[in-house]
Design goal:
50% of the residues lie in helices and 10% in strands. The chain is built from seven helices and seven strands, in the order αβααββββαααββα. Helix 3 packs across helix 5 and helix 5 packs antiparallel against helix 6. This is Siderophore ferric iron reductase, AHA_1954 family. InterPro entries: FCR-like, FhuF_C. Pfam families: FhuF_C (PF11575). One of its GO terms (molecular function) is 2 iron, 2 sulfur cluster binding.
Amino acid sequence: MVASSFFSQLHSKSSQLTPYLRGYQGEVALNAVIPQQDNQAVIEALFSQLEQDHPEAGNAYWLTRTWSLLCWQPVYLAFISVYQLKSVPPLASMVQYVSDNFISGYQFQRHTVTQGGVKALIECAGRELRALLDDYREQMATWTRIRPGFADHLLGDVVMSCLLNAHQSGELDEASLRAHCQWWLEACQLPLSLANTLFHAPISSEIIQIRKSCCLVYKCHGRGLCGNCPRHEDNKKRLSQ
């Protein structure tokens, strides 16, 4: 696939998935998280905005939300690229835009693409994601405590959610899903045990996800537990069966 065609299609497909996942071109705008640069001020500002918006939620929520926001766009783009466009962009060069208490919008500093078989593409995407997100975490670790295991479990939950979405959309049948779980987890250097967060519901037998980690949104006023939260009573019962 020609690079210009790839990025045009990526922008189209990502914005169709959600308008928050919008691709940009041209000069990098202000308030961006830029790979291999000092992003501490921008990320700390996002953390501080979450603290101001939800003072009742506490540090654990502000940290969890900040990290989750940094992860979601790169992972979603990796899955769109591998399964719909059969190529991988240079995710490690991806710029992300911060707007108040959210991250929405992306841009690539390099416009090359990698092609190959699906397993090779997953391996490439995993390397790129790891390079990008390790850089974020290492910068955050200079001003807050963010354990690698904590970060990996949250990242793994996003990866597993995208795998489930790929299955539900018909991109992966159940047999392929299990194999691809292992490929993605290995490629992203994540615990293979995260594959166990996808399993058959007892009655419907449909595949569902119970996350490894809680996003802690229930600590915000007026919010409750997510349907796939491990703290949810229904999910505690499922896990005990």
